Amino acid sequence: MSAVRHRLLAAAATVPLLALALGACGYGSQARKDTASEVVPQGAKTDGLDEVKIGFFGNTTHATPLVGIRKGLFQKELGGTRVKSSVFNAGPAEIEALNSGAIDIGWIGPSPAINGYTKSHGKSLKIIAGSASGGVSLVVDPKKIKSLADLKGKTIATPQLGNTQDVALLNFLAQRGYTVDATTGKGDVTVQRTENKVTPTAFQQGGIDGAWVPEPTAAKLVSVGGTRLLDEKSLWPNGKFVITNVIVSQKFLKEHPKAVEAVLRGSVRTNAWIRSHPAEAAQALNDQLADPQIAGKALPADIIGPAFKNTDVTDDPLAATLRQEADHAVKAGLLKQPDLKGIYDLTLLNKVLGAEGRAPVDDAGLGSE
């Protein structure tokens, strides 16, 4: 086991329970070994750096880094500076990696980004771009649940206590008048925290009646007989809400802005390529997932297709929805009122967008002074 991996695993294991709950994305608890881009660096080094270390998850909501690395789009922007990537299964390990300098830039969900920022009193990270929106559904056993009115007395899974989908389900149930103890998950509806990799089996065995989960878990449940009862997009204005952000170490941002700008340019151009080449992008994503260093297995066509289609890539971090997601966690009693002022720095993103002839994006009043 590498020293980096050992350190990340140890850090993840010692995170206090509440911090782990609020930070995790529900895809497991381990960080996988470092992997490097297969595209050969060429040209001058950006900011004089030998490498830029980026982190992400091996799933469809992190399509931007997966496809961008596969197609060499990040490496092209960084020239002679090598892209070095690390794959994570959970938010706490990725935040620890960012804090320790094991990675410089990461793709991560809103809950761990909020937790990482607030725990460091606003000194560890900045959100510098969006990456994905949507890609979350309530999938149920159609024999047990035929409508939203049938949820009472049923057991619904979420990936982990306090993670983004857990908070979303608790908020949804509260709005519909159901009472649920956020910590135990007991109440009118039982909220059962179950890792995404276990959820399809629990669903097939009847241990749960449904699940509020991200892709590709939602598509996996559908493939074994589940029905999408609710797409979370329907609960948000214009069907948009943040599921994946791009974060950076504040130290790295200050010391290497040209490298950060190059990565953001790669992100923006990757998202544009994904939107204009959806079929090819889905294949590139699946090919990358098959890499033993990432997921080790490609997804079947009946899963990768719906999962990819249900998740939208975006450069806009959808800052207003991040604020709302934090408010939902506070109302559920899983988070103290956070001070999110300064969590965003969209300066370089808006510079990149401007160079592409596109309008700037907004930080919803949560940007740096």
TrEMBL record:
GO terms for cellular component: periplasmic space; plasma membrane. The keyword S-adenosyl-L-methionine does not apply. This is Aliphatic sulfonate ABC transporter substrate-binding protein. Pfam families: NMT1_2 (PF13379). CDD domains: PBP2_NrtA_CpmA_like (cd13553). It is found in: Cell inner membrane; Periplasm. It comes from Streptomyces kasugaensis. Its main location: membrane.
